[in-house]
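Memo to structure team: turn this sequence into structure tokens by end of day. - J.P.
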Amino acid sequence: MHHHGYAWLGEKEAFDKEGVRRPPGKPPTVGSPQEVIDRYRRAVAEFPTSGMPPIQTAHWLMKPASVVRGTWEEPKEAGEWLGLQLAAFAPRFASAQDADATRLLVMVKSAVESLTWGGDVSLGHYIKGTVFHSVALVTCSPNRAEPTLPCPLDR
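Reply from structure team:
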């Protein structure tokens, strides 16, 4: 078992477009409404290659290896990376409460505990202005929520 780190920074408006954040699913049937067909086509084209955070944290494993920001065998190492990510952006968080150092430390500790038993971690913060920062740690080989998903680095 190991853990992959993912990070995304972008416009909140783009993040809110959930269709791009969901895998394609089953193809539409003959007679499906055009909006369903269009959503499926867009998901097929965009989901697998986009660095946009997926709705389900485990679905990061469906993304290309190029979006993996780091890989760690030990939860503590992954937690250290998470702490660095949060510390780097905390001065820009829209909420002073979200940037509180003690709160961030507790979040990192909780993340390490989750990774220890095979859980995933997904955090997001509004950045001053219209930007959103997303960071995730995903347990791999196997993932508890999606055990059949292969490691993106093995592809």
